[in-house]
Amino acid sequence: MADVNQDRRRRNPEMVQEEKQYDERTLHVDRVARVVKGGRRFRFRALVVVGDRKHRVGIGSAKAADVTAAVTKATEVAKKHFVEVSLYKGTLPHEIESKVSGAKILLKPASPGTGLIAGGVVRTILEVAGVKNALSKSLGSTNKTNTAYATIAALQSLTPSKDWVTTKNNAKLAEGKK
């Protein structure tokens, strides 16, 4: 069977698919409707997260007449809205809380070996971003779209470890001023 596929690739080079550089995951697909004179017109809304598992992640939401078109459009939106995530030894540098609309997200760093203790949308976003160990709690609304945007807002507002003001950093700053 493997020989047959290899033979086909030699004859048709377009058939060889390039390896995807991004991890694309569909978080949610919803059927939405608008009311018109003759009844209801149905469309689909897709929520997609895209990441490279190397500290970059983005989410996108889009609507289309069918599911595949909605997912494709949402993926393109997500790729345009990448966010850099600053990590510290495979986990988050510090505890962070974020709120979007009614959804409130709490993210905490975890020691090595803990894994991702998160549910649903938050877990998927952290996985795709490349976070190995973290704790999370979703408070308030269970709306997947708002939870996803709250998670991205929390990841955006993380302060990298190199920007922390510590006694070592203060000593270096003091020496530099003299």
Give an account of the 3D structure.
This protein has 178 residues and is of the alpha+beta class. It folds into two domains: 20-80, Double Stranded RNA Binding Domain; 86-160, Ribosomal Protein S5, domain 2 (2-Layer Sandwich), CATH 3.30.230. Helices cover 33% and strands 33% of the residues. The protein contains five helices and eight strands; from the N terminus they run H-E-E-E-H-E-E-E-E-H-E-H-H. It has helices spanning 2-11, 67-80, 120-129, 144-156, 167-177, and strands at 23-36, 39-51, 56-64, 83-84, 96-100, 103-109, 116-117, 134-140. The strands form two sheets. It has a four-stranded antiparallel sheet, sandwiched between helices. The longest helix has 14 residues, at 67-80.
How are the SSEs ordered, and which strands pair?
Elements (H helix, E strand, L loop, with lengths): L1 H10 L11 E14 L2 E13 L4 E9 L2 H14 L2 E2 L11 E5 L2 E7 L6 E2 L2 H10 L4 E7 L3 H13 L10 H11 L1
Q: Poorly predicted ranges (pLDDT <50, ≥5 residues)?
A: none
Give the structural class. alpha+beta
Number of domains: 2
Instruction: State the helical fraction.
Output: 25-40%
Gross morphology: elongated
Strand order of the largest sheet: 1-2-3-4
What proportion of the residues form beta strands (DSSP E)? 25-35%
CATH C-level class of the largest domain is Alpha Beta
**Biggest sheet character:** 4 strands, antiparallel
The N- and C-terminal alpha carbons lie at a distance of: 73 Å
The tally of helices reads 5
The helix/strand series, from N terminus to C terminus, equals HEEEHEEEEHEHH
Q: Calculate the mean pLDDT score and round it.
A: 85
Radius of gyration: 21 Å
CATH fold-level topology of the largest domain: Ribosomal Protein S5, domain 2
- Described by its quaternary structure, the protein is single chain
The CATH architecture of the largest domain comes to: 2-Layer Sandwich
Question: What is the total tally of β strands?
Answer: 8
